[in-house]
From TrEMBL:
Residues 269-326 form the DHHA1 domain. SUPFAM superfamilies: DHH phosphoesterases. GO terms for molecular function: nucleic acid binding. Residues 18-169 form the DDH domain. This is Bifunctional oligoribonuclease/PAP phosphatase NrnA.
Amino acid sequence: MNLEDIKAVGNLLAKPQKIVIVPHKNPDGDAIGSTLALWHYLKNRGQEVRIIAPNDFPKFLKWMPGNEQIMNFERENSQSKTLIEQATIIFTLDFNHLGRIGQMEPVLKESDATFIMIDHHQAPSDYAQYMYSDVLMSSTCEMVYNFIEFLGDDDKITPEMANCIYTGIMTDTGSFKYSSTTSRTHTIVAALIDKGAENTKAHNLVYDTNTPTRLHLLGCALKNMVILKEYNTAYITLSQDELDTYDYQKGDTEGFVNYGLTLHGICFAVIFIENKEEGIIKISFRSEGNFSVNEFARKHFNGGGHTNAAGGRSDVSLQETTEYFISLLKDYKTQLNA
């Protein structure tokens, strides 16, 4: 964020505002952690501020301080619309295109509020008046820490804020193993622990609260894994029937796609998940090295994200989607075998 924008945002926040904070649809740890940390910060500055999420978020994130204050646009539609209409500032966190917020998109497009984007994904759109966009950042939570520091308030980070920011960084870096984890990331994490982040507790509450049905679903997913050695690729499919059999709950498939990359020699891993309610196949892509799943998802599956982690979707059947996916790989054989 440049100095001019920092001063402008600082001047805005020096006055009483009606603020709404919005994460992307199906919010993950980084989205929830960053919005909650910013909510605590702005509330402590005396601002009138609410978080409105497009839909629900996983149970393993519902321990974070303030999570009960997050409104669900699907369930609290009328009240959410009123708050958005009244907002003077709207922060959008962990996404950079209004298409990522589902049915909230037309409501936000009608708003006259000042938009402030904080995000680390590629190819941002231009809906925000003030943009803090940096694809080199490990997470939006790391950027929220920087944002608070830009405003000269890092000494005002409370234990509640520290726990939220820590959790978002932890989840979006794969517990600090992804290449986006820098020395700066670790410096911030150390500062967060000093400020009250309970790192062991956060890890346990996010990763060690499995249900038997989730582990059974993981077993089903691993049994369904297909390995395409010719392309150093592995993919997993989960049908709606399989999800129903194992009592799928939101967030249960989080991290499943990464198991493909634990196989020796595999550099491209994908999971295809059928969602009959929405009539789509949800897709997650992961890679190692220089193979850009962001470009792959944008070109073929109406998606995008980061170089090594992206998402997409398909409007045809699970079988048709996987067949199409396999047909594409021959064009990427050289890259996948580099």
